[in-house]
Write a sequence for this structure.
């Protein structure tokens, strides 16, 4: 069952790190970076968009709204700012339309007399994730980080990018990772289990604040309960509030491959960067443990 | 035989996400024959980033097998005609829009699905989502192409323009390539064509105008929209995939979506034989259902339901207990879930008997979900006033779906779950359990996986293509006789008399709950007379006799008296008995 696990010892690792939009790159070629170093920052479109029936607020026909508008498409507005005003009877009666939130007037339909206001852009940033050197700058988007490292790729994972000290919770690859071996001093660490981890252990690890768990297997039912939803198409990595988990062999109880266990053991105590992101279908993205040398 | 193909050799290639399959077909004098086939991994992704690399490998391998040179200098040998279908990059991703969800948007949906598209979303003026939400989803979901319909010819205008305006306001960007224009097919009210093209301007969109998919409220015209989709796919979508620019130079005619090629072939097969047909294609990640009823073709797609990548999603959509109810062994939920999860993440080449059992169970639910979806797509035209008789009123509401298993003469299934690695018993039972054919239905499976290739050859030589389909592609499992209705276990269900031209060979009373097969070879046919008991119907009405000429197959005459709708038993022993029942051969029929 371990045919998908790829071990690479002392390999060159090249990570392309980009923000999902255009923004500012904060590093230069040749810079030495740490996992936490922010490489680029930008903003993405806010999904919160609201429709304002301007014609209804002003009490006019939709086609007449345009002449009452104080703002145009692209204008920024504050919450409760007046965006349209209608006066009647020589200014004695006034009706206004205010913005329901801070944002930008994205669309104004002259025909429908409605406006779409989108919330303020959301800031995004990308960190290095691995320690290394910047070898290339991607203008307005990010950079390429390169380092020498050993890599362990799992078959499935959940949770996003984490880095921490590699620690062993078990003595051998056939031993399970249970609640008994978890304690508060493992906070922030990346724990290696053996054959599988239990639901209770995953919950306790999340409570303690364990950085991540690497284990041979996990019961799919336990993982489903841990995540609170069915796995479906096997696209993971975006889960929030879960401890990053990487399984190296498959669902069920599978002692971790001896080679994998040996390799990880040889780096006990080192800082590692892990990512549970998995995409089974489209990109065949497998979760990975990167151990910088 | 079409003179166009006389003395011609074809190299036909189908490219999917994983595999590129090359088939060589030679046409001489009286017909065409499949000379051979070979596969190679698809090379559209890195490191090759050139689809033609995989084609060359497959073609060279085929040439090696056949002992002839079919690959020349940088392309197929000149004496060959090259045809191609493709479903790389997940296929053709489309959005459709219309005015009314159940009328023009539904017609547009049928046109897009019929053209082999994977539908991402459907928009209409009567959409329950507010317009800003529509704008937002259009913007965030990047399609390969947009199909806009709406309004009968001479009908609604302003709403059609509103919808065009909405698409423009959303500034929909195509899935691949920042530098290219989004293809939009306009297939709505002819009177506003010009104004639609003025709204969806040339600088941003590659708008193509075709005939209305719904020219009249009671008439649907999907052909021009489908052709428009193929043309735009060729001109604006496929050229952006790595290597296709070179491939286009090699191929004769258009490269069309794989599912469209299969659909064309199945439609031609059903029309040629004048039968109503239902076909199910289960892939690793998707399940397609095609049907032809009364000459009307439909295709539906469950995009994330499949046997490997999509198997976990079956469990999500159907529920683990619905999958488990089909497993004829005691396997706990934890284990079932682990098996399903491992099939998804590891896609093993071989399965243990236990894993195969779970996959077979999941396949039943995949087909059930696929048929549910198909019933929603394959419907009579809505919005048309129906004349109802008094009898209709007593006979419940008129069925919206045109899918009618009692009126289905032919069922065809394809996908790895039906290939030669699975026994005829497994395949037959899987089809009986999941589709639940009613009346008298022949059951066939595609064992050669060259349907897309034959779909490409069809236009060049229809007669020979259909001959190859019947002779070399489709494998007959048998003809099923399944009465509709239910009774108590052991009660008489029907009397079946089997006879040849000369004599009666067999006569028996079938009781409720029985499932068995009477051997009859695929090339043989017999005359059957089926008289159901008063509570059952085999297509002629309750208790009324049906006489028909039927052909056999690997499982011969399949008698399924388990009732319709089929009740899934709680008792595993019954499931085991069903699994074993088709292997029994009580007596030999000799035609």
């Amino acid at each position: 069952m371990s045919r998908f696990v790829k071990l690479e010892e002392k390999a060159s690792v090249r990570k392309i790190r980009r923000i999902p939009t255009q923004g500012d790159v904060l590093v230069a070629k040749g810079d030495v970076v740490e996992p936490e170093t922010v490489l680029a920052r930008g903003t993405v479109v806010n999904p919160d968009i609201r429709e304002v029936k301007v014609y209804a607020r002003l009490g006019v026909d939709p086609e007449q709204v345009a002449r009452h508008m104080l703002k145009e498409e692209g204008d920024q507005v504050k919450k409760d700012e007046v965006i349209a005003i209608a006066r009647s009877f020589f200014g004695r009666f006034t009706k206004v339309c205010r913005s329901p939130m801070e944002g930008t007037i994205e669309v104004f339909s002259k025909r429908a007399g409605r406006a779409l206001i989108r919330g303020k852009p959301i800031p995004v940033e990308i960190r290095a994730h691995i320690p290394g050197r910047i070898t290339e700058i991607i203008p307005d988007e990010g950079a390429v980080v390169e380092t020498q490292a050993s890599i362990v790729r799992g078959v499935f994972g959940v949770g996003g990018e984490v880095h921490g000290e590699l620690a062993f919770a078990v003595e051998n690859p056939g031993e399970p990772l249970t609640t008994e071996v978890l304690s508060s001093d493992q906070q922030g660490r990346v724990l290696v289990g053996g054959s599988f981890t239990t639901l209770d252990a995953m919950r306790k690890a999340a409570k303690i604040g364990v950085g991540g768990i690497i284990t041979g297997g996990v019961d799919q039912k336990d993982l489903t309960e841990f995540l609170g939803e069915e796995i479906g198409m096997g696209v993971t990595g975006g889960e929030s509030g879960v401890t990053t988990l990487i399984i190296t062999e498959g669902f069920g109880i599978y002692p971790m491959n001896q080679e994998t266990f040996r390799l990880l053991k040889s780096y006990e105590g080192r800082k590692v960067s892990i990512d549970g992101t998995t995409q089974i279908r489209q990109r065949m993205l497998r979760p990975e443990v990167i151990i910088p040398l | 035989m079409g003179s166009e193909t006389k003395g011609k050799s074809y190299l036909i290639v189908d490219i999917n996400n994983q595999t590129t399959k090359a088939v060589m077909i030679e046409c001489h004098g009286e017909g065409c024959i499949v000379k051979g086939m070979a596969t190679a991994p698809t090379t559209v992704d890195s490191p090759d980033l050139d689809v033609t690399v995989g084609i060359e490998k497959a073609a060279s391998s085929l040439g090696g097998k056949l002992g002839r040179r079919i690959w020349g200098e940088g392309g197929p040998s000149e004496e060959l005609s090259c045809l191609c279908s493709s479903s790389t990059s997940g296929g053709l991703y489309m959005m459709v829009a219309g005015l009314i969800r159940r009328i023009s948007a539904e017609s547009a949906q049928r046109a897009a699905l019929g053209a082999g598209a994977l539908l991402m979303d459907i928009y209409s003026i009567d959409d329950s989502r507010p317009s800003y939400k529509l704008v937002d989803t259009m913007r965030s979901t990047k399609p390969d192409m947009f199909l806009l319909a709406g309004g009968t010819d001479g009908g609604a205008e302003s709403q059609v323009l509103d919808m065009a305006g909405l698409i423009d306001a959303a500034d929909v960007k195509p899935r691949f390539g920042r530098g290219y224009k989004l293809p939009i097919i306009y297939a709505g009210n002819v009177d506003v064509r010009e104004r639609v093209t003025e709204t969806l301007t040339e600088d941003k969109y590659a708008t193509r105008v075709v005939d209305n998919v719904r020219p009249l409220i009671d008439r649907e015209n999907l052909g021009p929209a489908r052709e428009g989709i193929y043309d735009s796919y060729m001109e604006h979508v496929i050229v952006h995939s790595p290597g296709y620019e070179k491939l286009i130079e090699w191929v004769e005619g258009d490269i069309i979506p794989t599912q469209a090629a299969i659909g064309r072939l199945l439609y031609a097969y059903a029309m040629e034989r004048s039968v109503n047909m239902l076909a199910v294609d289960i892939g690793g990640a998707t399940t397609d259902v095609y049907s032809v009823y009364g000459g009307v073709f439909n295709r539906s797609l469950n995009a994330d339901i499949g046997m490997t990548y999509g198997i976990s999603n079956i469990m999500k959509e159907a529920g683990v207990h619905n999958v488990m109810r089909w497993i004829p062994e005691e396997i706990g939920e934890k284990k079932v879930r682990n098996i399903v999860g491992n099939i998804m993440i590891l896609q093993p080449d071989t399965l243990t008997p236990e894993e195969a059992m779970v996959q077979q169970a999941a396949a039943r639910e995949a087909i059930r979900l696929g048929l549910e979806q198909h019933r929603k797509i394959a419907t009579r035209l809505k919005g048309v006033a129906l004349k109802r008789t008094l009898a209709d009123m007593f006979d419940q509401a008129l069925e919206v779906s045109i899918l009618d298993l009692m009126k289905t003469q032919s069922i065809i299934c394809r996908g790895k779950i039906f290939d030669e690695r699975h026994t005829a018993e497994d395949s037959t039972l899987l089809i009986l359990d999941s589709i639940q054919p009613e009346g008298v239905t022949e059951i066939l499976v595609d064992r050669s996986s060259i349907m897309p290739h034959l779909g490409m050859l069809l236009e060049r030589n229809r007669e020979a293509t259909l001959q190859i389909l019947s002779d070399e592609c489709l494998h007959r499992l048998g003809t099923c006789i399944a009465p509709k209705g239910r009774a108590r276990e052991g009660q008489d269900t029907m009397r079946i008399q089997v006879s040849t031209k000369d004599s009666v060979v067999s006569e028996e009373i079938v009781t409720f709950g029985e499932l068995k097969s009477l051997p009859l070879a695929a090339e043989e046919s017999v005359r059957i007379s089926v008289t159901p008991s008063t509570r059952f119907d085999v297509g002629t009405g309750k208790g009324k006799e049906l006489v028909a000429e039927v052909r056999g197959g690997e499982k011969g005459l399949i008698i399924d008296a388990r009732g319709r709708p089929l009740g899934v038993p709680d008792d595993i022993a019954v499931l085991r008995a069903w699994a074993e029942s088709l292997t029994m051969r009580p007596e030999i029929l000799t035609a």
Observations:
- The first helix of chain B runs from residue 51 to 66.
